[in-house]
Amino acid sequence: MTTGPHQRQPIMGINSRLGRKPSAAPLRRGKSRGMTLVELLVVMGTIAILIGIALPGMAYARFSSRVSLCGNNFRQIGIASHSYATEDSLGRWPSFTLPIASSPLTGYPGIRPTYVAGEMIVPMERLGVAPKLWFCPLRPYWEISNANFRRTFDRDISMGADLVESFKRGTGSIVVALDTFWWVPRPLEGVAQATFPDTTASVIRRSDPWPERLDQSSTAGRPLASDDTVGGGISPEGKAATISGGHRFSGRVRSSNALFPDGHIETKPVGGLTWEVCNPSREFGYMY
Q1: Smallest Cα–Cα separation from 178: which of 163, 165, 195?
Q2: Based on CB atoms within 10 Å of each CB, which residue in 13, 158, 218, 267 is the most buried?
Q3: Averaging pLDDT over each range in 167-176, 224-233, 238-247, which range is the top one?
Q4: Whether the predicted pLDDT of 81 surpasses 60
């Protein structure tokens, strides 16, 4: 191709004019250095230490959350109990005759504070106490009760009548064993003028009565309900050599909840727990 006299010539760079080809900028090749075995071990050790520090804190946070959930269960039981007593003509806390004459429970010493009449469960459910609320989330008894019911009926416990039926199938009686100590005195079937618990028939630490009515100011120091917490080897001072139930963390009982007539919840550390009712030989006692 020829160019006319008035056409511009292409501008050539200095390299073209000198007959040299343009070259790319030289690449610097540094030596790539990987992580040594010692450095890798140090990093892995640091991560392991951080995990070891974090996990116990996370586990204790989960434990504390379940203690709070247990307290919320008691709070709902307290609201329902107050509604029940308000509706009752005599202002009585929920108390139904314990059917010891028509059940395997023969004799006063065999009764535990966890035993209530099955007919108490449904009225309390109508006032907001679902069956699961009678069981502490830190202990396995709700899962055990539900699994037993599921094996028989091929479904989970969904209402109070199911909970009553599960115990009726298992024991042949309408006595329900809660995962909660119920301290409101209840009459005993076939035993005139007797209740459980009873300050005259039980081995007790204090002489003041348990709450029976809404207007009893003398029972302010006694709970309506508390966690199932049992001490073994009771000393005269009210302490226990061993404690089971309550709120367990890392293999030891740490605390126990109690619901009082005015509606407040106390979470007592294990050092503050004392026995309230125990067997005559003081081999074990029910604590809060």
Answers
A1: 163
A2: 267
A3: 224-233
A4: yes
User: Which whole number is the average pLDDT over 194-211?
Assistant: 80
Q: Which residue type is seen at 278? A: C
Residue 280 near residue 247 (C-beta atoms within 8 A): no
How many whole angstroms separate alpha carbon 145 and alpha carbon 210?
29
* pLDDT score at 52: 73
Provide the pLDDT for residue 14. Answer: 43
Report how far residue 116's alpha carbon sits from residue 279's, in angstroms, rounded to the nearest whole number: 19
Handedness of CA 81, 83, 89, 91 (dihedral sign): positive
The C-alpha atoms of residue 99 and residue 106 are separated, in whole angstroms, by 10
**Confidence band of 100 (pLDDT split at 50, 70, 90):** confident
Residue 175 has pLDDT above 50, yes or no: yes
Residue 184: count of CB within 10 angstroms of its CB: 27
Contacts of 258 (CB under 8 A, 6+ apart): 74, 223, 225, 226, 227, 265, 266, 268, 288
Given the structure tokens 């509706």, which residue do they identify? Answer: 87
Residue whose structure tokens are 């009873």? 198
Peptide bond before 10: cis, by omega within 30 degrees of 0? no
pTM of the predicted structure, to 2 decimals: 0.79
